[in-house]
Amino acid sequence: MGENKKVMKKVLSMILAVLTVSVLLAAAVSAAYYKTIPGNLIKDGDFNSADVADYFWMNPDEGPYRGGTCVWQKDGGAGNSGCIRMNGTDNVSSVPALVPRNLVDGVVDGKNVDAKMWPQVVEGKKYVAMIDVFRPVGVDATVQWDTENGLVAYQRAAKNGEWERIVTIWTANASGNCHLRVVNECLDGGIGLKPDQYVLLDNFYFAEYKEGVNYTEMVNEGTPDTGDNAVVISAVVAAAALSGVCVVAGKKKSR
Ligand SMILES: [Ca+2]
């Protein structure tokens, strides 16, 4: 092989390396996700902890709040964090829902508390609730907010194959318990999750509404700090460094 051919071969392999790095970077950037907003009044609403069932009605043996088809998983959520998988069921009257409970055997954060099982609202105050929903392609189940105390607009998931954030803002028309839930509304004209279907839920958020907060802000860098992604990103950086070395070596040789 002549010197020119060797140089040509090196140049081609460098181009291939650069293209590979570009594709990997593009994939990392496209993994943008919704930003977590501080001030969540719902404990474990980010679903990043395995003890999530302490703060949401998910144990089928405990009834009565319809979270029996919900299962916690340690990844697959926003930025590949922990999330909830809501499974379908052939029990049409089950109405799968995800409902928070502040009360755990009368004790919250080590203190005895009044029986405030539900998030509390005050008449006339403005509140915001949001949930990140992922409906796989082909799943058209009705996923929406549902509550009392003045919530009139039932925002519903509308996308497939990507995460979307459903935000609802309302003014409480009565003080007291807010029966806040994310529900697969399979009655009243809604579409149920079939037994082999699921949706993913993340960032169950409820707080007093604040002007000026961007509740649908995205994390743009698309490089979540999870172990798996750290490995991929390290590989991209290493490949980029390597192709840089190759370019320098190629330039020296071609002189
Ligand atoms: Ca999460």
From TrEMBL:
Record key words, sorted: Signal
Signal sequence interval, chain numbering: 1-26
Superkingdom in the source lineage: Bacteria
Protein known as: Uncharacterized protein
Classification of source organism: Bacteria, Pseudomonadati, Bacteroidota, Bacteroidia, Bacteroidales
